[in-house]
Amino acid sequence: MILHITIHTNKAKESVDFYQWLLNLPIAQKLETPNGDIVFLGCNETKLEIISDTNAETIHAPSLSIGFAVDNLEEKIKMLENQNIACSAIISPSPDVKFAFFTDLNGCKIQLCEQIK
């Protein structure tokens, strides 16, 4: 089981605020360290760990993405576009799923995925 996925960033507060805004991820745990905060976001699922790191550089890993389940893909895309964040076209490789990609403020490739019922 994957416990967490970590993003080292010099934009920790902005990153936490962004993921709470877009995906309603609650703060599961917050640790204050001499080098900055470590925040775990999420509930019972794998957590997203945001580590404050003043030396962090923008991520450039085009072969890696972090996927999040959403209830309404089009709504999330509109939210992002209203913040001038570009998304890919919606991809639907089967009738049961559709998804889109965007890049977050840290350079992470993010997939938003809606299961179609």
What does this protein structure show overall?
The chain is globular, with a radius of gyration of 15 Å. The strands form two sheets. The protein has a four-stranded mixed sheet with strand order 1-4-3-2, with helices on one face. A four-stranded mixed sheet has the order 5-8-7-6, with helices on one face. With 117 residues, it is α/β, with parallel strands linked by helices. The model has no long low-confidence stretch (mean pLDDT 93). A hairpin with a 2-residue loop joins strand 2 and strand 3. Helices cover 19% and strands 40% of the residues. The longest helix is centred in the first third of the chain and has 12 residues, at 12-23. The protein folds into two domains: 1-57, Roll (2,3-Dihydroxybiphenyl 1,2-Dioxygenase, domain 1), CATH 3.10.180.10; 58-117, Roll (2,3-Dihydroxybiphenyl 1,2-Dioxygenase, domain 1).
Question: In summary, what is this structure?
Answer:
With 117 residues, this protein is α/β, with parallel strands linked by helices.
Topology of this protein?
Layout: E1 4-9, H1 12-23, E2 27-33, E3 36-41, E4 47-52, E5 66-69, H2 73-82, E6 91-94, E7 97-103, E8 109-115
